[in-house]
Please model this.
Amino acid sequence: MLRKVSTLIHSLPKVHLAAASICTLIIGTTLLLLPSEEVEATRSTITLIPAKPKANQHAPANLEPSGNETSEYADANLLDQPLDQTKTTTSELASTNLEEAVAPQIMENWIDYDVRSGDSLTSIFKRAGLSARDVYQISQATSENQVLSRLYPGQTLSFLIQEGELQKLRFVQDKLNSIEIARTADGYDTRIESRTPDIKTHIVTGTINSSLFVDAARAGLSDNMIMQMAQILGWDIDFALDIREHDRFRVLYEEKYLGDEKIGEGDILAVEFINQGETFAAVRYTDSKGNNNYFTPDGQSMRKAFLRSPVDFRRISSGFNPARLHPVLGTKRPHRGVDYAAKTGTPIKASGDGKIIWRGTKGGYGRAIIIQHGGNITTLYAHMSGYKSGLSTGSRVKQGQVIGYVGMSGLASGPHLHYEFRVNGVHKNPMTVKLPHAEPVPQSEQAAFRQQASRLMAMLDGGTTDIALNGN
Ligand SMILES: [Zn+2]
Model:
């Protein structure tokens, strides 16, 4: 922080050194206390300023507009307005570039333009009264980092234009990243400022009274966190069907802060869900290769080696029934798989990692793919309208990878996926077969994992919050 402040002072004209030091006082104190939008903190800080500085002490000689609007503005800034209102537009800029939001705002005549949908650099420059040449020069100056090549609504571009010349351009990408481009003798210089948020941990506990979404939200979990929890535990708990009143949950997750301001959420670190009396728990572990996965506290993968259903189905038109009348043939033919009714063209995913051992037309199955997996398991996908291009017999596929599309080739009364699951050649009901776990924590990392897992579970048990996870 100190470094930033001093850079700022150096950039100010010497005559205004007195003003600058008052600014420094403000900046110094406010930075310590309020990087956020907390109005209360701002007010108490502002009263620390010893004397009321006159607006003209702050105004540089070349500040031309000098309308009363400007001086009132400067006055108000220093005395009783919360800091985040010193910005003419977004409070985001103020909280990101506090030191700059305070000082140059007073000294210089910045104009902000909010990025609207459909905006380009050219359209915003045009609104600011700048020329195509300016656009070109700024594009050149930022060609390396491409930071201005994509603009999104909600972002802000601030311009400092003097006598028709663009002196400075400030672009706040998001709360963590901003860039300032300043005119020099021979072009423009860019300065990128990135901030790293502090990570804190947070625990939320809750009990189900009506539904997962209602009660988890009431307990304080965001939609994003509820989805993360459902994804981690979704291999074991069907959150649409299995949830009951009195089910309980605890979630330990990361929150990102800039100073006191929470700017976002990170990942779930540990979660426990007691569903109908059965406890499911998971911890996050980053292995030595940098892969993140969730495991049970004793090191089993939370993921299963197979997806329960290889298609996002609307409904299951026919379940597993070894003795049913075939809808097309009208004869009794065992149905040894599950049918997922879905629109023609719906993607079909490989339910597990494996190798394609059949890709082609196969009697009543129509266009079909058979995948050989580990553990002597095969899966079969039938009635496809087409195959995913690039795949053939012998191709290796990953769990969740699209292999083809729903259709009604072969003997089918309508578009659907017919899916079979065989273990040692014997048909199993894909809906109920016990699915093997994905790879556990490797042996070589068991020690590191156990340490991490027991620490996370202890935090979850103790209900301790806001403890930095990495003690360094
Ligand atoms: Zn079928």
